[in-house]
Every structure is written in C-alpha cells, then in structure tokens.
Design goal:
InterPro entries: CRISPR-assoc_prot_Csy1 (IPR013397). Pfam families: Cas_Csy1. This is Type I-F CRISPR-associated protein Csy1. There is one protein chain. By secondary structure, this protein is mainly α. Among the domains are: 1-58; 205-443, no CATH class. The protein is built from 16 helices and eight strands. It has helices at residues 3-37, 41-57, 60-70, 125-131, 140-145, 149-155, 159-170, 205-220, 222-232, 263-266, 309-322, 329-353, 370-376, 385-391, 393-413, 422-440, and strands at 74-77, 117-120, 134-135, 138-139, 187-190, 196-199, 248-251, 276-279. The strands form four sheets. The chain has a two-stranded antiparallel ribbon. Strands 3-4 form a two-stranded antiparallel ribbon. Helix 15 (393-413) packs antiparallel against helix 16 (422-440). The radius of gyration is 26 Å and the shape is globular.
C-alpha cells in the first residue's frame, strides 16, 4: 500500500474498533450491574471473570476472527422468499445487475442494486451491521467484494490472516442454486410462441428498501424540510420538494421474529425500515381544496386528528379487532400494525400544519396543549420554544396523549375491550414523531 492507503487503513481501523467497543459497552455495563447486586465472593469472581473474558473476545482481531466464522450463517440477497411466507424454504437470491440487457421487460436487469439485504440467524445481526458500515462513502461489504487492501490493513497487521477473514465474509455472496417452495406464489408467464413459463416471484427486498429510503429522504431530510419552509414563507428555493398523496406504509413483518425475515427489514435505525414497506396510490388523483385553520381546542385529538379520513378507516379496523375481546398474539400484532400506520398520520398532520404562518399557536384564543404546540407549530418564536423542541421531550408527551386518545376511542366503543396497550402504542408514535423532530430541528 502507498502512504495514502496506509492513512486510510488507519482511519478505517479506528472505525472498526469504535464499532466493536460500542458493542462491548452495554455487555460490560450489564455485568457491572450484576456485580453491584452480588453478595458472595464466589459470584463476584464469576462475574469479574466474565467481564475479563468479554474484554478479550472484543479485542479487534479476536472479534473479527469470530465474526468471519459466524458470517457463514448469513446469506446476502436482493430477493428474499420469507417476505412471501415466513415458513417458505425457497432459496434467497443475490442478483448483481449490469444494466446491459433488459430484454424489453422491466426486471432486475434494469436496476442498479443500491442496498444488499441479508437473511440468516438473528444472532449474527452484529456481523451484518458491521459490514454495512461505511468508510469514505463505501460500505465495508463492497470493500469485501473487491478484496480491498485498505480493509485488510485495517483489520490486522497480519495481512494473510486478514485476507482469510475477507474471503470468509465474501462467501456470503455465494447463493445456492435457485429453488422454490410450496409456500411460494407461482405465475404462468406467457411466451411468444403461445407457451408459458411457470415462474415464482420473489420479494425484491433491495428495491423495496431503496424506495423506502427515497421516500424517507423526500419527507424528512434537511433539504426537504428547508424547501417546505421556503414554500411556507413564500421564499425561493432551488430544489423544491415532493409530496406523496395517499401514501401508505404497510408493515410486512414487524413482530417479535422480524429479524428472522431479513436484516434490513427489521432494523430500527437510520439504516433500516423497521418492518415497513411503502405503497403508492395506484388511482387517479382526487384533488380537494380546503382552507387550513389553526387549532384552538385543547388538543388536536379532540377533533381534527380524529376526523382524518385514513384515521377513521384505521379506527374502524381496530374496533373490528376489539369486538372479539380476545387478547392473543395475532390480535395484538394486528392492532400494533394499524397503530403504526396511524402514527404516520401524526407526521402528515404536522407537515400540513407547516402551511400556516409560524407562530399561529401564540394567539390568545389558542388553548392547545403546550407539547402539541411544539409539535404543530415548531417554528414559533415563543420564548424557549426552540430549545424545548430540540430537546425532544415533546415527542414522548404527544405520543402518550395519542395513546390515551386511542385507548379512549376503543373503550368508548367497547368498554370491555382487552386489546389496549398504550405503552406500546406510545413507543410507536414517539419513534415517528422523533423522525419529524430530526427533520425540523436544523431549521429551528
């Protein structure tokens, strides 16, 4: 390696060690909590030995050596059958497109794969997360595929062993021969000579993830937020912004075993989609013009949010589930997914309210709750509002109000309903509202 590569290898090594130490820290803290509660020397010795063992196993080379072995439990894929049915034993597919020949059909050959998903044992999620880290705008996964000398130098001073680890990681790209399964869907595809191919469509998780990231960026990025603010203030903006009428978030697999479906599907972070998939309306637009007015009531949940068309539809579905008066896993998950969809209505409402002049909530006639003011009028110049908004406490408070409102809606329809779970609902709503906060905070 030249001097530049040596420097990059040093920076990359720091990134690797930081990642590993971030994985180690909560494990050490957990053991220290146990240590504080122990009363016997024998127990203390066992815990201290455990801490010592963790520190050794989370040294850079030890962890990488183990990660390379565990990576054999991961199969990288762009198409994953388990989205069609979680018990489908069909083979995942890794499709590397070259965009050279689409054969006059819209298919995987026409697209460039921006994201690679993975499926396998949930216990190796840390390995997948590690390989999706970026250095100089390039994922370690891509550096593995081209056997990067910089990556090898960052992993270990023993270059031969480092390349052995890289080769072990690269084995994740090697897919088995394609095989379908009885639980997969099948389609007869017509050919030009009057015959048919029997094909088995496989869920394109990489494409779904890319669309999810595009929509997320268009709704919550700093650029989009600045463009919406410029529009609200009648200012010129070079980029503009996009809106997605009748956008729907469908939650495919977000239950307790979501990680067994795929890694990108389950991750609850900036790099994952938390079980969500984006669906666009496949109908002609139906434009309806109506004047937007400030909220003067004590809570937006007393009227405006409740009357939203999609919210009413989701509430009706929740009421149907509540009629059973059963509290089992399937009903709880059904309600949970409906609440997730409803939570995105909270985000949509907040962006609609940005069309009003900033500071509307300072009107003496406005009796709106303090935290809801921060949520719906984030650019108000009321004293202390900027710091309060950035702190994010309002996210949790509004989420709790949402959960209480939803609980009341259910109880009003069925006082004996047993499906209420306000703590879970509040957590779901807080996650969405925090996305809104991150999108707006730099414009405060």
């Amino acid at each position: 390696m030249n001097d530049s590569d040596h420097f990059q290898a040093k920076l990359l090594r720091e990134l690797i060690e930081k990642f590993i130490q971030e994985r180690l820290k909560p494990k050490i803290e957990e053991q220290k909590k146990k240590l504080d509660k122990t009363s016997t020397q024998l127990e203390r010795d066992a815990i201290e030995e455990k801490i010592h063992s963790l520190i050794i196993n989370y040294r850079r080379e030890e962890w990488l050596r183990d990660a390379a072995k565990r990576s054999q439990q991961i199969k990288l894929a762009t198409h994953i059958p388990k989205f069609t049915h979680p018990m489908a034993e069909a083979s995942p597919i890794y499709f590397k497109s070259d965009k050279t020949d689409c054969n006059n059909l819209v298919n995987s050959s026409c697209t460039k794969v921006a994201y690679v998903d993975g499926t396998g044992n949930a216990a190796v999620n840390d390995v997948f997360t590690f390989l999706n880290k970026e250095h100089n705008g390039e994922k370690l996964l891509n550096m593995v595929s081209r056997r990067s000398s910089v990556l090898a130098g960052a992993m270990s001073d023993n270059i031969d062993e480092a390349y052995e680890w890289i080769d072990a990681f690269y084995a994740m790209f090697k897919a088995k021969a394609p095989a379908s399964h009885t639980l997969m869907k099948q389609v007869y595809f017509p050919l030009g000579d009057g015959s048919y191919h029997l094909i088995s469509p496989v869920f394109p998780t990489s494409l779904v993830h890319e669309i999810h990231e595009i929509v997320k960026d268009e709704r919550f990025s700093d650029t989009a937020v600045a463009a919406r603010k410029a529009h609200k203030n009648n200012d010129v903006n070079e980029t503009g912004y996009k809106t997605f009428p009748a956008l729907l978030y469908m939650y495919y697999y977000s239950g307790v075993r979501a990680l067994n479906i795929s890694f990108l599907n389950s991750l609850r972070s900036d790099s994952g989609r938390n079980g969500a998939g984006v669906l666009f309306a496949s109908v002609p637009p139906n434009w309806r013009s109506k004047s937007l007015t400030p909220v003067n009531s004590e809570s937006v949940f007393h009227g405006r949010f409740t009357y939203r068309t999609f919210v009413k539809e989701l509430l009706n579905e929740i009421h149907e589930l509540a009629k059973s008066n059963y509290d089992n896993f399937h009903i709880r998950e059904g309600v949970k997914n409906l609440v997730k969809a409803m939570s995105y209505e909270l985000a949509d409402l907040s962006y609609e309210m940005l069309e009003l002049p900033a500071g509307w909530s300072k009107n003496p006639e406005c009796r709106l709750n303090y935290y809801e003011k921060l949520w719906l009028d984030p650019f108000s110049d009321a004293e202390g509002s900027r710091e309060a908004y950035i702190s994010g406490k309002w996210c949790g408070e509004v989420a709790k109000r949402f959960a209480r409102w939803l609980t009341k809606q259910i109880r009003d329809k069925n006082k004996d309903a047993v499906i209420t779970d306000p703590d879970v609902w509040s957590e779901i709503a807080e996650y969405v509202l925090d996305d809104v906060r991150r999108g707006n905070r730099d414009e405060q």
